[in-house]
Amino acid sequence: MIGGGLAGLACGVALAEAGWRVRLFEQKPFLGGRATSYVLPNGEHVDNCQHVTLGCCTNLADFYSRVGSADKIKFFDELVFLDPQGRRGTMKAGFLPAPFHMTGSFLTFAPLTIRDKLSIARAMLDIVAAKGKTADLAEPRPISMLEWLCRRRQTKGAIERFWRVVLVSALDEELERTDARYGVDVFWKAFLMNSTGYRMGVPTVPLADLYAGCKAAIESRGGEVSLRSPVRSLRAEGTSIKAVQFDAGKEESADAYVFAVAHDALFDLMPESIRRAEPSLANLSKIKTAPITGVHLWFDRPVMDEPFVTLLDTNTQWIFNKTMLYGEQTGTANHREQYLQMVVSASYELLKKSRQEIIDLCLREVRQALPRAQAAQLMKSTVIKEVAATFSPQPGVDRWRPQQQTKIPSLFFAGDWTATGWPATMEGAVRSGYLAAEAVLHASASLPASGTAPQFLQPDLPPSGLISLIVPKQKPK
Ligand SMILES: Cc1cc2nc3c(=O)[nH]c(=O)nc-3n(C[C@H](O)[C@H](O)[C@H](O)COP(=O)(O)OP(=O)(O)OC[C@H]3O[C@@H](n4cnc5c(N)ncnc54)[C@H](O)[C@@H]3O)c2cc1C
Fold first, then answer.
1. 290 ligand 1 Cβ < 6 A
2. How far away, in angstroms, is 390 Cα from ligand 1 center?
3. Measured in angstroms, how far is the CA atom of residue 293 from the centroid of ligand 1?
């Protein structure tokens, strides 16, 4: 296993459970890849960026359970939105069955006008009637989410204060650069199909703490996890893979090689003979990336009571109350100070700004949204710009995403960028890892006596409420 991000960890843990001796090599000194945390020189634990999951992310939930981290994710039923005029809106499920479970909070959602709401309701009913697959998603030229919305005559307010807010955060890309298939899928799976799909899960520990159980799961079954171990290349004779190569001439060989590195790092690791034999490698450079910027602010006093809020019409999209989120798990929150983390997805504009300019901008927006922050003193701050945070879900990108099983018998790929049907998320990464593990078992013919390979991939949330009357439940494979 090359790469100790979520894809490599999910694949490694699954294969270890299936009886394989897994040897995982990660170049960094910690596990978790992009979804990790580290300790600053002053001792402060910071996430690479705040990560959240949703109720519809069934594979990530399964992975957290397998590695003993499920109780470190706290789920919230209410999403709070604030606009610069001081209006507040909440989204939460009420007593109505899916797909109408959010109708109550939607009707009273102050930042949207009646016209905005009517246009959104029309588009939602369109998604429901088409069971998540509106006819225009199957057109030969994939359309952008913005085009999909314009075809449904969405108001400016609906686009700016609803669709853009949800989708830029979920997909890390602007609406005009997002394949409509991904955008529609977010609403179908998270907001319409099941009344719990939208529930937001937030880690109550620094991200790296979620992966302690992975090392144990692999090592207790005879495997090993090696950190600070960058793989430099793959050695092959023709299309027969002989070994992976490390620094100082070290080599390791295996029955199967799973590359779970970022897509833009993979091509350079492959020798010419493998590049020729596996055509999907040549397409990887067509998969573009998108940035996310995280801004961390420490105030000398509490300025916020909610665990998190979404801001409308500002650069800052989310504010997370890290003191509250961490404190709930450990009981160690220092209630005299408050640590907030802001997230800006698709942060192309911020990449051009200096760190100080970004801090000043976010601080202004935080002080406008949270009046108590105006008198509070900013004690310290940091900015983490992830230039290539996720792959960009551009119209038609799916055709460049390779399967986990390659044309080379012992070579497999995993990573959020492989073909999972999901956007670049932790759920997508875990799905890819489970699919790669299934492909390894299938290809190696090391099936148990029963002859059936274990299935790791979990089904989606079942349809609930009225949706269960029109959509049949997914059957296990
Ligand atoms: C700022 C930011 C915010 C995000 N927010 C969210 C969110 O809120 N919710 C969500 O679901 N997703 C979020 N994501 C996306 C999520 O983090 C990724 O989709 C997921 O973590 C990808 O996992 P992966 O294993 O596919 O890739 P990676 O995490 O990139 O893992 C690849 C691993 O391979 C290692 N590696 C690379 N080359 C080598 C080599 N030669 N030898 C050995 N090891 C190597 C890397 O060090 C890395 O650990 C966010 C991402 C970022 C960057």
1. no
2. 8
3. 15
Residues in the chain with pLDDT < 50?
Answer: 329-332
Amino acid at site 286? K
CB 53 within 8 A of CB 223: no
Q: Which of 317, 396, 388 is nearest to 348 (CA)?
A: 388
How distant, in Å, are the alpha carbons of 86, 198, 240, 254 from that of 190?
27, 5, 43, 40
Query: Which pLDDT does position 332 carry in this prediction?
Result: 46
How many C-beta atoms lie closer than 10 Å to residue 286's C-beta? 12
For residue 18, the SS3 value is: coil
Query: b/e for 92-124, b at 16 or more Cβ within 10 A?
Result: bbeeeebbbbbeebbeebebbeeebbebbeebb
For residues 294 and 341, the answer to whether their CB atoms sit within 8 Å is yes
The CA distances from residue 78 to 102, 308, 340, in Å, are: 11, 10, 19
Long-range contacts of 365-370 (CB under 8 A, 24+ apart): 365/311, 365/314, 365/315, 365/316, 366/297, 366/303, 366/316, 366/319, 366/340, 366/342, 368/84, 368/314, 369/82, 369/84, 369/309, 369/311, 369/314, 369/316, 369/319, 370/303, 370/304, 370/319
Is the shortest distance between the CB of 3 and ligand 1 below 6 Å? yes
> Residue 130 has what pLDDT?
97
Ligand 1 neighbour 424 (Cβ under 6 A) = yes
Phi–psi pair at 41, nearest 5 degrees:
-55, -25
Give the integer Cα–Cα distance in Å for 341 and 360.
14
- Looking at residue 475, its pLDDT comes to 66
Exposed/middle/buried for 202, CB within 10 Å: 0-12, 13-18, 19+? buried
Interval 155-165: pLDDT, tens: 999 999 999 99
Instruction: Say what the pLDDT of residue 289 is.
Output: 98
CB-ligand 1 contact for 165 (6 Å cutoff):
no
Tell if the pTM clears 0.90, that is, is over it: yes
pLDDT value, residue 451: 62
Measured in whole angstroms, the distance separating CA 193 from the mean position of its chain's CA atoms is 20
Residue 336: the pLDDT is: 83
pLDDT tens digit string along 274-285? Answer: 999 999 999 999
Helix H or strand E segment including 165:
helix 164-171
Any ligand 1 atom below 6 A from CB of 80 = no
Given this model, what pLDDT does residue 232 score? 98
